[in-house]
Amino acid sequence: MNPAKKKNFKIEPFKHKVEMDPKYAEKTWKILEDAIHEIYNHNASGLSFEELYRNAYNMVLHKYGEKLYSGVVATMTQHLREIARIVEAAQGGLFLEELDVKWREHNKSLQMIRDILMYMDRTFVNNFNKTPVHELGLNLWRDYIVRSPKIKDRLLNTLLDLVHRERTGEVINRGLMRNITKMLVELGLPVYQEDFERPFLEAASDFYRLESQQLIETSDCPDYLRKAEKRLNEEIERVAHYLDSKSEAKITQVVEREVIGNRLKLLVEMENSGLISMLIDDKYDDLGRMYNLFRRINTGLQTMRELMTAHLRETGRQLVTDPERLKDPVEFVQRLLDEKDKYDKIIQQSFNNDKMFQNALNSSFEYFINLNIRSPEFISLFVDDKLRKGLKGVSEEDVELVLDKVMMLFRYLQEKDVFEKYYKQHLAKRLLSGRTVSDDAERSLIVKLKTECGYQFTSKLEGMFTDMKTSRDTMQGFNSTWAGAEGNDGPTLTVQVLTTGSWPTQSGARCTMPTEILAMCDKFKMYYLSTHTGRRLTWQTNMGTADLKATFGDGNKHELNVSTYQMCILCLFNTSDHLTYREIEQATDIPAPDLKRNLQSLACVKGKNVLRKEPMSKDISEDDVFIFNDKFSSKFYKVKISTVVAQKESEPEKQETRQKVEEDRKPQIEAAIVRIMKSRRLLDHNNIISEVTKQLQARFMPNPAVIKKRIESLIEREFLERDRTDRKLYRYLA
Amino acid sequence: MAHDRVTLNVGGKYFVTSRTTLANAGRGSMLSAVIDENWQLVPDVGSNELFIDRNPAYFSVLLDLLRTGELHTPPGMLEKPLYREAEYYGLLDHVRAARKGPLNGNRLDCVASISGRATGDGTAIRASPDGGCCVAHDSMVHVYDWLLEEQIPLTLDYVNVNDVGFLSPNRVVICTNDRESGAGGMASFNVKTGNMEHKFQVVHDGESKNFTAGALASSDKHVYASCRGRSYEYGVGTWDQITGQQVTFLYEGPGRPLGDACKLQWLPRTNLLLVANLFPSSDHSFITLLDPRTKGKVWSWNDAAQRGTADEKIVMDTVAMEDCSTVCVVNQFDNLGFIDMRASNQAVRWSHRYQPSKISEAEERCYSKLACSGSQLFSSKNDSVYVFCSPDWDAAKGVQTARLRRPEGGAISDISVGGDRLFVLHSEEDLFDVWETPGPSQIVNTY
């Protein structure tokens, strides 16, 4: 601008008029300052909000914002120093109460001051990046009260002391605590965390370290856990009552670490009250508590699982290898089932059905069941027992329940084919002797096996059922054509035609039958072959039964239910009262072990001895003489002479079954090898072993040595050849 | 309820209203404080009224706003005093909400044309988050608040301004060339005081380096700028908005496209930074999307493949539209093009095939500039701004939905969108237009 021009302007008087009263700012500020004093002195009722607001507005409008702001800071600071003195002077327990009262008063005053200075907050504070009045008030409170040297430590110690007193059972003023912690939170989360939470957690850590040390020396495990749980709940409750909710995770973590985490091993392994005792005594509540507490610790559940597994394996091992237990297979399996039930219940009731624990349980069972090579046999025997007598009068659902449990044990078996072998034998016996309780139960179990192991596994078992049915039909036909024509005076013959291969028959068990029976047999043979040409019938005399009508001395008449062998023996006594062992052997042609067994059951069982033996002894020797027991008597008209059968297999039988199983496995292993090699063409030894094992493990665990033998056999038969350069490689020959 | 009734004496005129109505003003308003129970109302003797020493005419309008949510001013009432009164009562936000709606390119009114006093053409205009703006003229930055009142002009050592931007309505960052003396560089200013608040430093090996700050962008926490220094200060710097301290620095090896970037854009949804090197500051065009946290290039495009063909198209401006996953570009013939942001090294799909017959015609004009808001694209061309809207950019066709033009003003040199306003800067004079979408209830304009 041109300075000459400027001089020509006459703006002096105008300017003078605009010029404000120089004392204006001072005066206005005085009014506001007085008002702030009045507000702090609870004497605000005489103040006019509108006037104060207008004054503050005018100060900001006329660019006295800075003066107003710094004035407010100074005035508030002055009051807070005063308040600090009052709070510091408060005696003992009144300290917190005084602080709380002053805090509430300060809040109210701050609210009013902010109302007055609202315009300043909106414009001046915003434009000049100052702290808004409310936040300013909180910051000043923090700096001059909460963090003043004389209050800071006293406040913290008072709070920690109160918490400690509550932990040791005293009742404290929770409302007051709540107000104070709320104040700290309102001053900003960092204030709460640094000035209270961190020392609070440290104090808790110290407290619980000491307490848990004392507790673990004096309490047993369930007691300790109960107290730990109580402490944990107390802390959670404490947070809910008077701490910031964000503290909950932190304080529970401290308790978990000090009370449980650091004592984990000690607790679990505590003698006579730790996990193992709880498991043994079925302490569902204690176990549940342990589970819930240990779940909070990283390695807690793992520690529990490991110990439980070790315990299960050890007790399981003892169970399956205890020679006492081996005497009674049914009891043996029942014990296994009871053990499984026990742990299932524990996992369900106390361990929240935790999958990891279920897996641990399953793997433990799998481990120890297979420790005993006879487990498959025993399980089959157990089923046999249940299906023969155990399930009489039991509801359908309960039958299913038992069968499901058996299936569960079956799943643990590695040698499922051995089970199949035994099961077949036992089923055959049940079917042939007509002693099965429920056809539905039998079929239900077969369906279960089928779903578990596939069609192949059960096809022969199903074949057995089919045979039974066709036999019934055949007998009906036979009886209507032959038996009906000749009247009823001859012996009645019932024949079951068994398909070779489906049944576990022992061939070559011959015996010479009485002539009248032989005649009937021939008739049946003729009938059968006339309807089914091209078939061959062999008699399995070792599996049949017969009902004999016998007359003893004094005209005692009885019907004797005996085996085919026994029938042959007894028929000899129709013509003679006195026979030597050798005579009997010659006449019947029964294999010696069977003969001995049958004679034993005829002569040596008390109350059922239709024969007498000379000399009297338990065992049969080749020089014995057998005499018809004229004095035989019984309460019942029908008398069942059971063959003395070893329920369990005898040692040679066992060997035989074993051998059969091994024999049966050979083609399966070979088939698997060929299947694999056909698709792979070239494979090394280790891979074949692992693939074969993978394919077959649903049925049994193939022995690598056996697999190697099968491979060699296949090489001999030129299904495979060894690679010329790498001897470890096998090649498939199409 | 009689208890609910309040009698106000505003500047001598009586208003009877309810506490409920006054409570609509919200806790931050003087009107809600005046009835707060903390201020136990001591009515003046003999009456039951509350006195407020303000002009009743404006209060009447504002009370009506509280009652109805609509703003109606009688003919002849000026806008500025109304805003002043609204500010006194703490009702400014109510007034603005009633007056201005969310930006919609198809419903824009030109609410003001502001001519400044600057000499020379404005080079860039930038919108502030609350509806203000600033215009760069050579070494000066003129700042306007949301009322479009000019604030104190800003300058950083009187060095030519490369870019300028708002961190908040009250904070502006200016990027300039550096000088040997250490002047220039990059600094933030308080708009209200006109004072420099912080000078941003590039630190390498504990040593502050001089640098030329090029383009600028800001996220809610950080501020980014392309920097050209002598060696290790060449790249994109990241600073914390509150502390002003350098957070990271993205260096680049030979070729150095990052430090030469002439446009940065922060993409808040994907947390990526668009960095564009365009003609004329570089011969080849590069567009890159960087992830500042990993310092990795997430997406990139360059025009190397297209160069040398017959219709040579040089990308002059670009804007990324996150809502459409598209990077929009414009060439020297005002042709729009689109690049898919979802895969790297895509070709541009040009929407128009226009090429002027006379090159001289093109030389006289300003090159086209781009801005976007949601899924709307604004593109300047000569003296108009065109609005495009298409949900499907894959079709490579922006659907033109509106054209904004003022009879005076001439060619447009820059546009910017922010605070629900579109700012259009003209090249001939120191003049810019402000466009906004009217709110649900419009003030009765009396001009």
UniProtKB/TrEMBL annotation, chain A:
Signal peptide: none annotated. It comes from the Eukaryota. GO terms for biological process: ubiquitin-dependent protein catabolic process. Keywords: Isopeptide bond, Ubl conjugation, Ubl conjugation pathway. Residues 374-603 form the Cullin family profile domain. GO terms for molecular function: ubiquitin protein ligase binding. Belongs to the cullin family. This is Cullin family profile domain-containing protein. It comes from Ceratodon purpureus (Fire moss). The lineage of its organism: Eukaryota, Viridiplantae, Streptophyta, Embryophyta, Bryophyta.
Automatic annotation (TrEMBL), chain B:
It comes from the Eukaryota. One of its GO terms (biological process) is protein homooligomerization. Residues 4-75 form the BTB domain. SUPFAM superfamilies: Calcium-dependent phosphotriesterase, POZ domain. PROSITE patterns: BTB (PS50097). Pathway: Protein modification; protein ubiquitination. It holds the Pfam family Beta_prop_At2g24240. InterPro entries: Beta_prop_At2g24240, BTB/POZ_dom, SKP1/BTB/POZ_sf, T1-type_BTB, WD40/YVTN_repeat-like_dom_sf. PANTHER family: OSJNBA0029H02.24 PROTEIN, POTASSIUM CHANNEL TETRAMERIZATION DOMAIN-CONTAINING. This is BTB domain-containing protein.
